[in-house]
């Protein structure tokens, strides 16, 4: 948009995983494969819960574009016992916050409430996830909402440039298609398409419920296990094909004041052993206000108001990217400065002081995020999906501290010595000049 009792031991397998800093993590796997993971945090009064599916837009076939996201909307549109208004009113009545999101590899339905309302939250999330009716009337009502969302992205150049970049970088692979789907696809889907896709992808062994806050694991099991253990396994989950990134330039001329430019190079999968070096490299290059690109392009030269670097990691691949919004006559200069900074990073790397500052920045962000029950809930899910275990915070900090200046230079060289993919959105941008800067 967005039973713990003696009988429980007969149909679940439970294990307790040692946590760090915020208490132990409890994990239970139901007989059908649904996993329930929780972390108790005694010093808070709130509880965050997410019902996750290890499936997203990259698991759609070509003719299924946007179905994951459409389903995300529909699960709030009514169940067998609640209308969409009833669902909204029930969350508002307990002061709860609820939403959902669809990414390339996951879909999540989540909420946060005070601990005294845990039972209501669990009942609501269980109901929308398991009992949504996908009524024809609600499908028709929601269709224009999603079409408006597509238009909203296209109207925002800083959002839309990333769509263009991903199309150029990932090509025909599902990662290169919009999570929202196309207008034509959304117009064509009916209730049967949504139900079929839901049944195919929402497999029990790909469902994970994560919960963090002032909560007891046995209580969570008593609330959730009876409902979720009834989900039946269905046909096999579609195989995820590994994409092959490509270089090149994709230009879309649009009469707007700024020219928006985004570049991408191959990056690392989410579990790669060099992932911390890549994260630190990104911070140094364009991840904060003291980063090289921000200082050189915005602060020293005034070429752009907004400039940054980013990474996107998936289970089997990744992307390193840059973005800048500049006036049309400054595009070439901005790219030349960017290229010089990339070459400097690849050839000379970083000094120990710069790396130490990036480490402090990264650790600070991680530790500050850990104070949020929503962040803890999401971290539980991410660790379980990607590593099959909970990574203690002190282990994460140790891995950050262990990164060397040479590793930072190496991950930069792995990416930036290759030719980039470039997306450009603006008034009459010169594709030839862009190609010349990077020798594409």
UniProtKB/TrEMBL annotation:
Residues 191-360 form the Peptidase M16 C-terminal domain. Its cofactor is Zn(2+). Residues 36-182 form the Peptidase M16 N-terminal domain. Signal peptide: none annotated. PANTHER family: METALLOPROTEASE, MITOCHONDRIAL-PROCESSING PEPTIDASE SUBUNIT ALPHA. Belongs to the peptidase M16 family. This is Peptidase M16. It comes from Desulfoluna limicola.
